[in-house]
Amino acid sequence: FNIILLFSTFLTRLLTFSLLRDMSVTKPLCVEFPRSMVEAVTSWNLPMSRFLHTYVFRSALRFGVFSAVMVTYTASALLHGLSFHLGAVLISLGFITYIEHVLRKRLAVIFSACVLSRKCPPGCSHQNKKKRWVYLINIAFSALAVLHLTYLGSVFNSSVDYTEEEEDDITHHTIQKWSELSWTSHWVTFGCWVFYRLVL
């Protein structure tokens, strides 16, 4: 009887482990020290990211990558309750992640370097993998991601109770905060887009 009990306990733990193994919700190090904004965004809420990628992004790909990205972030904004500050942050993230992705993809092709938004698989075809300048490019994009995260997060003020605030007050707070910061992240993103267009 003890052997049966021991075996059933073992099976229960094995089953529980196998089911819970993929139950992680976030990858905090990828959010706090991101390689890219793409990595930060997809690591923030893994189940939601998987859901949106599977059911929204893939379905919208027939309209093009940019459209699919924007539809996905719009769906995320709707799922978050369509608050202005959340919507503004998510739509901004859509532009930021798309522009960063296409710029890094272009740089990876031009320099044949591992500078994509996501880490290259071990057997990638890039010729430049571990050169100092490759690390510098990736570090620069990581620093840029931290800048974007800080800027976008600035609208979430801990002293403001968003459940009691009027939507007009939240809208004003978001615009005022980003104005105080000179729309830095938006201008940097625009600059990255211009740079992307120039390096054809």
Automatic annotation (TrEMBL):
InterPro entries: LPLAT_7/PORCN-like, MBOAT_fam. Pfam families: MBOAT (PF03062). The keyword Transmembrane helix applies. Keywords: Acyltransferase, Endoplasmic reticulum, Membrane, Signal, Transferase, Transmembrane, Transmembrane helix. Its main location: endoplasmic reticulum. One of its GO terms (biological process) is Wnt protein secretion. It is a multi-pass membrane protein. The chain crosses the membrane at residues 55-76, 82-99, 133-152. One of its GO terms (molecular function) is palmitoleoyltransferase activity. It comes from Nothobranchius pienaari. It is found in: Endoplasmic reticulum membrane. It comes from the Eukaryota. GO terms for cellular component: endoplasmic reticulum membrane. Residues 1-16 form the signal peptide. The gene is PORCN. This is Porcupine homolog.
